Structures are given as C-alpha cells and as structure tokens.
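Lab notebook, bench 4. Still working through the backlog of constructs that have no structural model yet. Next entry is a single chain of 127 residues. Request: give me the structure tokens for it.
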Amino acid sequence: MVLRITRMMFIVGHSGAVFLFNKKKETSDPLKTSETSDPSMICKFVLDSTGKKIGESVSVNQDVLIIKSGSLFLGVPLKHVDSGEKTLVVKGIFDFTKAYELGEKWRKESYREMNQHDPPEEKAKRF
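Model written out:
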C-alpha cells in the first residue's frame, strides 16, 4: 500500500498533475454570456421552406441562429427555425436583407478572423 502511494506521488510529481487536487470554485451567479450554447442547433445544414440549402449553422446568439452562407453570416430568429434530425428548416419566407443585418451584427461583435501571415514582430510579442 505504501509502495503504491509512493509510486503515485512520484508519477504526480513528475507529470505536473497538481490539478487533481484543485477544486473548482463555485459562484452564486453563473457567468452570463451573449451566446447560449445549444449543441443540437450547431453544425447542421439550414434549408429554407422549399428545401433549398441556405448554409450551415455556426452559432446561437441569444435568440438568433447564426448561419454561414458562403462568405456571409446570416441571422434568423430561433422562433422561425424548425429543428430536424440532421437539418434545420427556416419556416415561412426567408428575408435575406434582415438576416444579413443580424448576421453582420453578430460578426462585428464576436467573430474574429485569424491571419495566417502575422508580421514577425507580432509573433515575437506572443512568445
């Protein structure tokens, strides 16, 4: 028994696994974010009422489903979306202008494009 505990302490000491003994602090107020994660709505193809593909769902922001359609982001209120097993269907007439405005608002607030070709001085600052 002592040998097993000693061996475990040795492994823990060399692997840096101190996290085993840390307990997560609980707060009375959960952090509120602008995005609510609903995994059943993410990464599904989105179709309009006629069955034509609009794009793919990438996020749910409060009560708006964010859809990536080509290089554009569109936003559709969740009350206008029916969830299927593999796809999502937008009910009624799809208003592209309003959807584009909602998607652009989300993109400006929370979407950040990655630049693959950072200047060398930027890379040096990060490390």
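Notes after review: Residues 45-110 form a domain with the Ubiquitin-like (UB roll) fold (CATH 3.10.20.840). Residues 96-110 form the longest helix (15 residues). Flag for follow-up if needed.
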